[in-house]
Amino acid sequence: MASHDANPILRSGRKEMQPVKKTLAVALFLVFTGTAFAAEPTAESIDLLLASTHADRMRDAVMDSMETAFTSSIAKQTADSIKGHPPTGAQQKIIDELPAKIVAIMRTELSMAAMRDFYLQIYREAFTQEVIDGMVAFYKTPAGAALIEKMPAVMQRTMELMQARMGPMQDKVKAVMQRSGADIKAAE
Length: 188
Hints:
The chain has 188 residues and is mostly helical. It contains 7 helices and no strands.
């Protein structure tokens, strides 16, 4: 068996390939470890981004929408559960107070203070300091300010349209489940 060192063509090829291999190794290292060298966003910059985007206002708008949805959902469930028997005064008081109690829990558990560590973790996992700084700069522009101003209305309208779609979707899901139940029984 001949040695590669004895073959002048292979020996010269190895020498020519060494710079290419080194360049390729450095490039691969940079590609696969580039994010490791990116600066992790500071808590202060994430707080600034959340303040710049008025995240607290968006959260409040979502909570308001959820409260409205809970109120109508609870009214429907109550009507279904009592089936034509009007609730007593005491029952109606409980029914009326329930949405506010649920929303109060959600507002506490999902408050900005309670969620701060959650936001810090997610934003640090998703973004670099450079990206956070870029987003903060964007939200200071007229386009960024318009996005912030209009986003609560966009979210409100999205919730309304989603609720309108939920009824027909639930009817379709119910029909599929009933058919599947019948098919399961027939397959016995």
